[in-house]
Amino acid sequence: MKNQLKLVALMRPHWRWWLLSLTLGTLTLASIMGLLTVSGWFITASALAGLQLASAGSFNYFGPAALIRFFAISRTAGRYFERLSSHNAILLLLQQLRLWFMQRFLASAFRPSSRSADLLQRLITDIDRLDQWPLRLVAPLFWTCLISSAWLVALWLWQPQLAQLALFYVLGLLLVPVLALFLGYKGACSLVKLASKRRQELVEPLSALTMLQLHQGWTAAEQQWLHTEQQYQQLLWRQQLLELSCQFLLLSGLALMSFHLLITALALVAEQQISVAALVAMLMSTFALPELWLPLASLYRHLADSAMAKQRLNQIQPEAETGTYCQLTGPITLELQQLSAAYPGALQRTMAVDCSLKAGDLLWLQGPSGVGKSTLLSTLAGWLTPASGRVLVNGQDLQLYSSFTQRQHIGLLSQQVSLFNMTLAANLRLARAQASDKELYQALADVQLTDWLTALPQGLETPLGEYGVAVSGGQARRIALARLLLQNCSILLLDEPLVGLDSSTIQKLLSALRQRCQQQILIIASHQPLATEASSHQLRLKLL
């Protein structure tokens, strides 16, 4: 499907980091094998040279010793920088995932709900599992196939007879992860589902602990969780037993291959086709193979974890489009009839509000912190159902319009702004991907950021850092406001947009907003007492 999560597509923008990680991992594993091989040959050859006094003085100790040092240093450095590059690649992938979800929800009917905490937990858990695919599935399989193939080729060039024997065992070893995948994949998927069910059955009763105890429902919830926990532990034990069995088969196969190669190579030594030192070097190279092959024992489990995480994330679907009216035409009007707002389950709600606005009007919502200004704006945005009264847009109830129409014509700037680890231009174009640079400059000018933008060496291509750490709180809020202006909504709802600004900047910003929003309804919630123009509407809220 078009809107489904595709990890390969998200990894593609940072493919150089993944290539660097795979290359450094290959260098590390090759260095481990080279270190064992050269060390085995060097120790044996040195001992044999020492037994023969005639050749002891002519034996070259320096070349192999330097090669051993090179492999030791490259193994350590390669492992260190491979960890750095792979973790950076994973962090970049998580950043892309975050942007993918944000863009998906911005373009859909997703809105806050009573299950937002559960949704957040699912996102955290499943996104965390997605690093199983590149780090514990793709990379180990790539390294095993590449290094083992190179080892077989080197063995073939040295002694084809030994290479044929080793190839037979390698093909047999490949059957072990395939068998594990066949036997354990469904169980690993069930383990992921049980883990989610186990967490849900633990967290949800705890959130209602008092009510469950009052109504004697806690014992039943506890028994249900214990039953699920028992199923989870039994399945986990079977999965661990399967993984240990696969590790045993892999180690047994490698040990048997080493023994068979040793027996075959001894005959070649007796025929003087190879030296004793070369025999030891070949045998030592096989001792590096377990580090390549043992991670494949858990391949099926990591595949199940990543596949289930991807499936569960794709199942998080935005709300279906509802509403009778799919279009909003003509001059915009907004009418509030005895409107009172409150979150579900709240003890208090805002006072009933009556107001009628048309295009070009400005409404000030004033009142102290906690009086319900943000709640009222969320209701006007369609996020909350009115506690009482009605919200009419062009004479029709707001809830009768489709979610897409509401998002298209109503824009809300909340107090918590979201900026991403992208450039300034990319953050602004989240509102409108086709916006030109000229439109971006104008939007930033309207929010009084022209001087700041001019001082930036990279201009619109300036990275804002994760969560917008590269800019101040006031700048972040105005960047988010500029992004909202680019949406060209008919109704703009601004929640405390003036926090952290000096009086001069406030007046310039308000003047620019009034000039830009002449064909829009502008509603600004602020706890600050401001000198406003006579033509603007004012409402002072209080709680009931």
Overall mean pLDDT stands at: 82
Q: Spans with pLDDT under 50 lasting ≥5 residues?
A: none
Total helix count?
Answer: 19
Number of E-type strands:
9
How would you briefly describe this protein structure?
This protein has 544 residues and is α/β, with parallel strands linked by helices. It has helices at residues 7-11, 15-51, 53-56, 62-106, 116-129, 132-158, 160-207, 209-214, 218-270, 276-286, 289-293, 299-315, 373-380, 403-409, 424-428, 437-446, 450-455, 473-485, 503-516; strands at residues 333-340, 353-358, 362-366, 388-393, 396-397, 410-413, 491-495, 521-526, 537-540.
What is the secondary structure topology, with strand pairs?
Blueprint: H1 7-11, H2 15-51, H3 53-56, H4 62-106, H5 116-129, H6 132-158, H7 160-207, H8 209-214, H9 218-270, H10 276-286, H11 289-293, H12 299-315, E1 333-340, E2 353-358, E3 362-366, H13 373-380, E4 388-393, E5 396-397, H14 403-409, E6 410-413, H15 424-428, H16 437-446, H17 450-455, H18 473-485, E7 491-495, H19 503-516, E8 521-526, E9 537-540
Parallel strand pairs: 3-8, 3-9, 6-7, 7-8
Antiparallel strand pairs: 1-2, 1-4, 4-5
Helix pairs in contact: 2-4, 2-6, 2-10, 5-12, 6-7, 6-12, 7-9, 7-12, 9-10, 16-18
